[in-house]
Structure formats: structure tokens, C-alpha cells
Amino acid sequence: MANFPIVSTGEHVTRQVLSDSPELMVVAFRFDAEGAEGALHRHPHVQSTYVESGRYRFFLGDEVREVGPGDSFVIPSGVEHGCLCLEPGKLIDCFTPRRDDFL
């Protein structure tokens, strides 16, 4: 099992790859403060997000949804998305294929 570094992705936001293979990657994103943002972006990977803890407002294309512990959803390839942290916590994201830019 590899040990991946914790990387800052913005103010009060970090990510850490938990595991990966060419076909799949699991990544933890920690939001340490209310108001921290996951910037709007898009990528060719299909993404599944599981809310381990905290509360978030997600922007998924034209849709806005609030999610909390135990919620999960899938973001299709190419859809612009991002989030605003409403209560500090952690998201677990899975990407297929692997996000080579995270390595």
C-alpha cells in the first residue's frame, strides 16, 4: 500500500489519494472551515462522491444540491461541478479512470 502526500487544493481544503489503479482512484478531500470552496471545474473522468462528514452545497451543471453525511452521487464525465463547505468535514471521491494529474 502506497503512502500518498496530503496536498493543499485551496484555502482550508486538502486532498489525499487513498488508493489507485489505472482504472480507478479513491481520494479523500478534507474541508477544514465553513466557506471553503471546491472550485468549479470539469474533467473527462466519471466521479462518485460520498459525504463522510460535514455539509456541502454542490453545483452540478445547472443543478444545486445540499448534501450531508451518508449522501452520495455520481458526476458524469465533462459536467462542470464544485462545492461550498457549509460545515467542515470530509468527502471521499472515486474517479474512473484514475486522475493521473493527482499523482
UniProtKB/TrEMBL annotation:
Q: Which SUPFAM superfamilies is this protein grouped with? A: RmlC-like cupins (SSF51182)
Q: Which domain of life is it from?
A: Bacteria
Output the Gene3D superfamilies linked to this UniProt entry.
Jelly Rolls
| InterPro entries reported for this sequence | Bacilysin_H2HPP_isomerase (IPR052535), Cupin_2 (IPR013096), KdgF (IPR025499), RmlC-like_jellyroll (IPR014710), RmlC_Cupin_sf (IPR011051)
Q: Where is the Cupin type-2 domain?
A: 34-87
Q: What is this protein called?
A: Cupin domain-containing protein
Q: Which organism is it from?
A: Celeribacter halophilus
Q: What is the lineage of its organism?
A: Bacteria, Pseudomonadati, Pseudomonadota, Alphaproteobacteria, Rhodobacterales
